[in-house]
Amino acid sequence: MTTRLIISTLLLFTTLFAQAQKKADTVVIKVGEASKVIFAIQDKKDLETLKHYNFQSLMDDMIAKLDKRDSTQLAAPASNYLKDSTQTANSEEWPTEADRARYRENSYRSNRYDSDNSDSYSSYTSRKSHRRRTYSSFNIDIGTNNYLENGKFPGDANKIYTVRPWGSWYVALNSTQRTRLSNKFFLEWAGGISWYNFKFQNDKTLLTKDDNGVTFSEDLRTNKFDKSKLTVVYVNLSAVPMIDFAGNNRKSGLFSGNHSRGFRIGAGPYVGYRIDSYTKQVYEQDGDDKVERHHDPYYLNNIRYGIRAQFGFRGTDFFFNYDMNDLFVAGKGPQLNAFSFGVTL
């Protein structure tokens, strides 16, 4: 099919520009591994005419003639290929509608069952455009978060700021861009907002601050406490190189309708800036439910940065984030490195 298309294209432009005397401007398009199509333009005024050509019909007719092993020039006038032309061809050499239908059917079958090996120019440009596209999606990270102190969980030493695994939810809303860098190699770069929710194991845990730093202690009030937590909100940017063995341009997701069959994996950096932080206590007093919320920086680092890992299959992706810097400013609180993990929707 490639050889026929090349021959047909050369015949077309030989007919159109055979009478030109000045040296033509040429555009060379590589097709497949060892073939090429050459467009020769000798009069730039012809470019305006070419803009109105119906190249699909033109190619159909040329290939139909080659299917009949007819290498003569097309008998119909070139004006018949103009999109607004109402002329009809009267030559017996003009391909019939049956010829066109047979070619369209063959083209459909070729593209349907052998699209990856097709060397046609239209297939080549389609794949080229597909490779270069960047697709956007909206994703939600839902999981849990915790922190490590010198590589260990604070609960191992029964620290009062030990986090309860169930109820310490991590949530992030991200606008994700997926850009193809090569055949199966992509870059997922995203921006969004996230919430750390550190729900303390001890419901009476109280976080206070003074000029020296933050202090974790037990609330001495006699109320019945139901919850105590610290919430930190960040805006984030991330860039995660991904290998997607399915070569799928669009990011898969449970709600995206794009369930790739291939396995994908990647890891990359992220950085965040703190925009809010507060403590929340829920307790019962004199039979009434009370909620205390205190917004304060609590000597939390304004910047977080770390490494994000992702892997997935079909419509499900999992993530793991690890903050490489401390949660609190050095010397103002315990040396805690936060992390989160869960599923991306």
Number of DSSP strands?
Answer: 13
Spatial order of the strands in the main sheet? 3-4-5-8-9-11-12-13
Radius of gyration over all CA atoms, rounded: 33 Å
Assembly annotation:
single chain
Report how far apart the termini are.
Answer: 43 Å
Alpha-beta content class: alpha+beta
Overall mean pLDDT score? 80
Number of helices: 5
What's the domain count?
Answer: 2
Residue runs with pLDDT of under 50 for 5 or more positions: 16-22, 85-93, 113-126
Approximately how much helix is present in the residues? 10-25%
Summarize the helix and strand pattern as letters.
HEEHHHHEEEEEEEEEEE
What is the percentage of strand-forming residues? Answer: 35-45%
Global morphology: elongated
Please summarize the sheet with the most strands.
8 strands, antiparallel, barrel
Written description of the protein model:
The chain is an alpha+beta fold. The protein has two domains: 2-131, no CATH class; 134-344. The protein has five helices and 13 strands. The strands form three sheets. It has an eight-stranded antiparallel β-barrel with strand order 3-4-5-8-9-11-12-13. It has a two-stranded antiparallel ribbon with strand order 1-2. α1 (2-17) crosses α3 (55-67). The longest helix has 18 residues, at 97-114. The two termini are 43 Å apart.
Task: Please outline what is shown here.
The chain is of the alpha+beta class and 345 residues long. It has helices spanning 2-17, 46-50, 55-67, 97-114, 121-132; strands at 25-31, 35-41, 134-149, 169-180, 185-199, 205-210, 213-218, 224-244, 260-285, 288-295, 303-314, 316-323, 336-344. The chain starts with a helix and ends with a strand.
